[in-house]
Specification:
With 270 residues, the chain is mainly alpha-helical. It has helices at residues 2-13, 16-32, 39-63, 71-91, 96-113, 130-149, 156-179, 191-195, 197-213, 223-241, 250-255, 259-269. Helix 2 (16-32) crosses helix 12 (259-269) and helix 3 runs parallel beside helix 5. The protein is globular, with a radius of gyration of 18 Å. The two termini are 35 Å apart. The mean pLDDT is 88.
């Protein structure tokens, strides 16, 4: 049992789970735009997410010397290094335009983590903007990159999906912000800090309405997708409703981040 718990913690702490979430959203994009299985972009996003998230999570603590290199963290560091090598391998299999846009999102990640300007905090600590940066990056990486790499025409469907994906990530991040409310710096000005937990939940539930009905505006309307999206809306609503500051870290780091995976698996099943 102890070994299982250690493996599960490594799975979460090394960002494999969040990597799978991004991978699932890439597969969702390929399904929605009828893109043939494109392994390089899917694997690039999977390993890139692992490297990016581990960098964001552990870099600041390491530079502040508040992070002791325990055995697990050393393993994560080695694992991240090999993931970085795979990111490079798959990067050179992408289209040139995809590479350029990927570098742009890498720059945003670095800005989010590193204080580039003298006497200024990194973007992660800019008041009120964290949730928008995270949602924008997820939309770009899981939606724009696969579409660009497949050379799919940019139509109204693409912009509708961008809005829909942005709303999805925004609502999921709201759940993170509710859970982290007790530990977040008040200067971050997260949504729950600004409007309170109750109003944050109401906001999240209201945003799920356009998320669902945007599907009706697609040119290639799919009735099965409506059923799947309804299940996802109900699932997110329940997770959002029961979110509070006393929840375990696994409430977000596993269950909330599992939502995109469940979404993809249901599409495969249907």
């Amino acid at each position: 049992m102890k070994i299982f718990k250690q493996l599960f913690n490594f799975y979460i702490n090394s960002s494999i789970h969040v990597g799978l979430s991004c991978y699932a959203l890439v597969r969702m994009t390929q399904h929605m735009f009828h893109i043939a299985a494109d392994e390089p972009i899917a694997n690039f996003v999977f390993f890139g997410t692992i490297v990016g998230y581990n960098f964001v999570k552990y870099d600041a603590l390491a530079r502040a010397k508040k992070l002791k290199m325990r055995k697990e963290l050393k393993i994560i560091a080695v694992f991240s290094f090999f993931a970085l090598l795979l990111v490079g391998f798959y990067f050179f299999q992408l289209q040139r335009i995809t590479q350029i846009v990927a570098i742009a999102f890498l720059s945003i990640t670095l800005l989010y983590t590193l204080p580039f300007f003298p006497n200024k905090k990194n973007a992660r600590n800019w008041a009120g903007v964290k949730i928008y940066i995270v949602a924008l990056c997820w939309v770009g990486v899981t939606l724009a990159l696969p579409v660009l790499n497949a050379d799919v025409s940019i139509t109204l469907d693409f912009y509708l999906k961008c809005i829909q994906r942005f709303i999805l990530i925004f609502v999921l991040v709201l759940i993170f912000e509710i859970i982290d409310l007790a530990n977040d710096d008040p200067h971050l000005q997260t949504v729950p800090q600004q409007i309170g937990v109750k109003r944050t939940k109401i906001l999240g539930l209201l945003l799920l309405i356009p998320f669902y009905f945007l599907e009706l505006l697609k040119s290639n309307f799919d009735a099965n997708q409506l059923i799947v999206n309804l299940i996802i809306v109900i699932m997110i609503s329940l997770v959002l409703f029961f979110a509070n500051e006393k929840r375990s870290k696994y409430y977000t780091s596993f269950w909330v981040e599992s939502v995109p995976i469940f979404w993809w698996l249901m599409v495969v099943a249907f």
